[in-house]
Amino acid sequence: MAATTGKGETVQDHTVTTNDEEITFSPIFNVAVPFIDRHLAEGRAARVAIRTNHGEDVTYAELAERVNRAGNALLGLGLSPGDRMVMVVKDDPAFFYLFWGAIKAGIVPVPLNTLLRAKDYEFIIGDSQASAVVWSPEYDPEVGPALEALSPGPAHRIRTEGDGLTLPALMADAGSELAPAPTTATDDAFWLYSSGSTGNPKGAIHRQRDMVVTSQRYGVETLGASGDDVFFSAAKLFFAYGLGNAMTFPLWVGGTSILFDGRPTPETMFDMIRRFRPTLYFGVPTLYAAQLASFDELDPDTSSVRLCVSAGEALPPEILHRWKERTGLDILDGIGSTELLHIFISNRLGDIKPGASGRPVPGYRARIVDEDGEEVGAGEAGRLLVQGASAARAYWNNPDKTARTMLGDDWVDTGDTYLRDDDGYFYYQGRSDDMLKVGGIWTSPFEIEAKLMEHPLVLEAAVVGRTDEADLVKPAAYVVLTDPEAAGDELEAELRSLCKQGLAPYKYPRWIEFVDELPKTATGKIQRFRLRA
Ligand code: 3UK
Question: What is the 3-state secondary structure (H, E, C) of 303-320?
């Protein structure tokens, strides 16, 4: 299909042009075309797009046909462009068919965290006013009650396999050809719900262009991803981090994605790496720490990997150093968010600053501001604001939160406290709402945690504010040990003196508690609010 611009030139629909300055889109643009159909036109039909831990391989030709069938199946049920389809789907090829089939048909997929509870699903399905819900039968115990509680609720209820109405049955009856819905680059494409530490989850509305921007600016220009890469992500597809790592980046460059539908543990991750030989591995700090703790026992083979990535929370320098020592591999730490869709400040190949998130990814701008919105100087902490063309346009049905977060012109308030050094590297200081005032001075819980983790017996640490006898806020540390037997007064004194020596004097933890584990979100973030409670 071709269109004519006002200037009389002819442009193909659904095309992208990229240069250093900007990424431009044809007036008619449906993002399923460059990510799915383009590979057939470019001779990659027989290449493997997806490999699963169950031994299933899906080629680019099979993927394109199944995407069409899934899109037609949804249209056949009566869904219309703009309708929402909630997905509670494990990491499986069906996730790809549904997500892209919906987008190609103009329907808006809303993938949800598969670890939520019935109450959460009830809220989100109701909030999104979804016309259809599709789920993997594993999640029956939580999705079932949520659907029962909603009346009338979504008109269409579909399992990816098993009982009742199933996706494979619908796809078998649907046509294998589908014309892309004639959307534009700034039309809504998909939503991702983000759960803050307080309040209800909010649906971030992403546009057709957003996955192109993250795949090109971070995937290609930062990671150097190409069609030769094999991508394996410990972070699941429902998380914006996993969605990029294991779906949009491989599909953008014509590479291969390895899917694992189980629980990420050191054993399962090392086993997948040995079996499928990925070139890029994407993890979170907690998992890297656990993989290091069982490294000797598992004796892994990581020789296929060229580069590792970490995001979700800041990567402690100790983990970076130990991983390099054991595997010879670098870990690129970068900060991303659901609202910006993927990583927007990152370390680079050959330019890694331990303890820093790095510098803005090409195409993104970052500013650190004080309470009045004025930019602060180098070395001063403030709120991190970021601008980029992958920024969500709004939160669904939430004008207040939208106004507070989406500042206009694609600027987003991240809610993080950061400082920038003289060389332009950005350092995470904590969530703005987790920062402590100790003796009147802003204190980063994260800085104290990083210091504690320098001790060889410390696996993880979390610091929160606690009031002392005088009702003043002081740091309290919760510490997980590599050897729980080592807990005791002696180690406590050692950790305290480590902090006193290495940090400003007011920052040492006044209380140290040894615990078996830290409360975490499904995506691996420490829930400091639960420790405070
Ligand atoms: C924190 C980090 C320090 C930070 C994400 C990569 O985590 C992702 O998205 P979420 O919406 O959370 C966003 C918040 O998480 N954070 C993430 N990465 C780092 N803090 N260093 C880091 N490297 O508070 C941020 O505001 O769950 C990560 C790609 C896509 C993502 N959505």
Answer: CCCCEEEECCCCCCHHHH
